[in-house]
Amino acid sequence: MAARPPVRGRAARADRRPDEGGAPVKLGVATQGFVGGHGDPARRIREIVAEAAVADEAGLHSFSISEQHFKFPTNVTGPIDVIMAAIARETSRIVIRPGVVITPLHHPLNVAERWAAIDVLADGRMEFGIGRGNTPLTAEAFGVPVPETEPRTLEDLDVILRAWTRPVLSYDGRFHTIAPVAVVPKPVNRPHPMIYWAATSPGSHATAGRLGLGLLTGGNGIHWDQAERRVARYREAFEAATGADTPPGLVRLDRVAILVNGHCAESMAEARRQAGDYVVGYVNRTVEMYEQMVRKTGSSVSFDRARVFKDDLDMIINESPSMFGSPADCVAAARRMYDLGVDEVDVLFDGATHEQHLECLRLLGKEVAPVLAEWPERR
């Protein structure tokens, strides 16, 4: 039996930077760069950087951006490394995280170089999220066969870890053959930044645990009981893992972050008015996209239960993990996620105006996060 690599996370509580508080569940935010009514991608990118700065000032734990290609007018965050580099220099405390890098679309050495440089620019505040992607259109546009996306992601992770942790690396894999090279810069975080695996299906939650990676899960299009089972499946796989499947050089991370739809305003009615139409449209698109991915990959995962959320904001708010309404409403939703056993809640705040986003971020940071910080440690 292989020796287990060291662990960061719930048991050792080594997942905190020295300047962080001891909140048992942290509150972050995320964006996919929804353009909105003005239809100006350049303007939206500048707004994202400004929103990250306000999230930093408000005291939120993390700011994430997902890699989204070819979805205009809904998203403009394809070049997330460029946007994150700008955010790194405009912020000073907040954790920045790609949510996630779709590594099959890139060469892993390039990914390693770019995100190490972002960690340098952020003075060690970068955490890394990796995933296969969930849109067949994107993989096919980049010339990547959809069935290859998961094995490519696993191999990419292996290469990236070696690039970050070894003075010189060489590699002979299924998809990459690399002669000896020295990759610089190295990340500030040593031996490497925290690494999370994006999971949407029950099986991919188990994969994250088996590999010893942190988990990026989501509440979009699923019910509360499904979220509970998926978190439990990850924890069980993490605890059962022998280390045999852990990539060489990885420090295992026992940590769950959940991405949820949400918007914070002065009241539930105002939150619904500002962002409700966007969220309904986003959920509709997501359900359709996952169904396409299942057909392309031949997966047996069923999204039948997700269809009840289509065109129904009440169902989305009440029956799926989400965070809508006044600060008090958001605290109540966060408590349900705390009870699921998650370590971080990331609110996907797209869909309102830039000014409404800024107010949402201030309310989350100033009125919601401090309440979460007072809750007791689970263990």
UniProtKB/TrEMBL annotation:
User: Which of UniProt's keywords are assigned here?
Assistant: Monooxygenase, Oxidoreductase
Q: What would be an example GO MF term here?
A: monooxygenase activity
Give any Gene Ontology cellular component: cytosol
Task: Note the superkingdom of the native organism.
Answer: Bacteria
All copies of the Luciferase-like domain together span: 26-344
Give a yes or no for keyword Iron-sulfur in this entry.
no
* Pfam family membership, one: Bac_luciferase
- Tell whether Metal-binding is among the UniProt keywords: no
Q: Where is this region: Disordered?
A: 1-27
PANTHER family documented for this protein: BLR5498 PROTEIN (PTHR30137:SF8), LUCIFERASE-LIKE MONOOXYGENASE (PTHR30137)
UniProt-recorded name of the protein: LLM class flavin-dependent oxidoreductase
Q: Which organism is it from?
A: Actinomadura chibensis
